[in-house]
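Incident review: delayed structure delivery

Summary: a single-chain prediction request sat in the queue longer than the usual turnaround. Root cause was a stuck worker, restarted by the on-call engineer. No data loss occurred. The affected request and its eventual output are reproduced below so the record is complete for anyone auditing the incident later.

Affected input:
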Amino acid sequence: MADANEDGLENDHFETHEEDEESLIRYYFYRGFDYKEIVLFLLQNHDIQMSMATFKRRLRRYGLRWQLPEYDIDEARASIQSLINGPGCLQGYRSVWHTLQLRGVRIPRIVVQQLLKELDPEGTEMRKAHRLKRRRYHNPGPNYSWHCDGYDKLKPIHGCIDGWSRKILWLYVTRSNNQPNNVAAYYLDAVEEYGGCPVDLVTDLGTENGTMAAIQSFLRDDPDSHRYVPSPRNQRIEA
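Output delivered after worker restart:
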């Protein structure tokens, strides 16, 4: 009987681990991260080591495939309307689509484009004509928002500033500013140096920001604590 109980406990523990692993994979999958980024997140953020072949087998087991998602058009319309009425009022359809992906709302990009034309026809035309009104920048104080970006025209560099004071938090010359591991390391060094992470982390849509975005969301326990924005909207660091 003792052996049976021990086996039962081990099986329960294994099933719990499998369930946690599945929920983590689903979390990152539905937010639009690519396979390499998800495998990296599992290792760095959750201490789950997995080869790419094993990861793909897990996807098949959980029924996760890149395909056109099923969605409720009314729910999609309401989600986009809430963005238009809030901080996403000047976002284009690509940025809106990415924001929805991060929130777990999976809608084809072409549908987002069509709904934006329906819900915000004036804004759509202004974006086409590049006549959007200038936004006011609001920031409550130091270390509330960090803005990060890279530049590789002359020599690859990567930097980050505090949105309130424009203090340079890091600025590195590197062989490549397109490696997610490098960018995440810069971020973690700054978190250690300044004793914490920002409330809001702002980056462009580059894939090199994926690991840093996941760590920020994990540390704040809030997927909305990181924002992907088009480069022209990340003006605190762009300027």
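Verification: The two ends are 70 Å apart (CA to CA).
Action items: add queue-age alerting; document worker restart procedure.
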